[in-house]
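The material for today's practical consists of a large collection of protein records. There is nothing in a record beyond a sequence line and a structure line. As an example, a complete record with its sequence and its structure tokens follows:
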Amino acid sequence: MQHRTVGIVFLLIAVLLLTGCQAASATKEELFTFQNSYIGDNSSVGNLLQYLRNSEQLEHFELQTTEEPYGMELHYAAITGDQIEETAIFNATFIFALVQNAEWVTFHFDAQTYQLTRDDLQERYGKDLRSFSSEDAVKEAIEKLLENHREVEALLQD
């Protein structure tokens, strides 16, 4: 009887571990399930924002859909220092790569506001951001841009 209980407990732990590992690997590529989203699709954009950097600090967002160019405003709390610049560039790059008609994103942090446009970022990356085909490719491009502090400063000053 005791061996059966130990066996059942062991089996349950194994199932939980396997399920947890599968869920973690599934979320890594889930970001690109939002590819070809549009600003007018509030739930799709809202779900995408949950996967971006510092999403737990996102207080709310507003989609601007009344006239072109379409964009969004993101309001964050409790992000400071270098995290602000990294969050703005990381999130804007993914938004422009995945949301087809997003042309600008305004980031509101406690003490700072930045607006990034698709054109500005595409100029910095040297390519149409919608042409990225994987999360890893986007992250690699972002890391390369973030290494160039002058470029980051210039981008955020525009």
Q: What stands out?
A: Residues 49 and 92 are 10 Å apart (CA to CA). The chain is about 55% helix and 15% strand. Helices lie at 2-30, 42-50, 82-98, 118-125, 135-147, 149-157. The longest strand covers residues 58-64.
